[in-house]
Design goal:
alpha+beta; 2 helices; 2 strands
Length: 79
């Protein structure tokens, strides 16, 4: 059998901070786009004309509540 590679997830506090940074709702969120635009302007992404032509791709992640990790035995556990 193939062994899976485990990914270290952020702490629950970090996940809380990320998930409550902006108001989350279904559909297109103009405030998220405005935040992305401001960050792009701060980093100089609009300095050259060719950098203004971009595409954005959004995805989501779900973290299961019934999934745990036991650091003493080094395994994921289904709670």
């Amino acid at each position: 059998m193939c062994e899976s590679v485990l990914v270290n997830l952020p702490s629950s506090r970090t996940l809380y901070d990320y998930s409550h940074f902006l108001k989350s709702e279904l559909g297109f969120q103009a405030d998220v786009l405005q935040l992305a635009k401001k960050e792009a302007e701060k980093t100089g992404l609009y300095d050259a004309e060719w950098r203004k032509n971009v595409g954005l791709l959004f995805d989501e992640i779900n973290i299961r509540e019934d999934l745990g990790y036991d650091k003493h035995i080094g395994k994921h556990l289904s709670l």
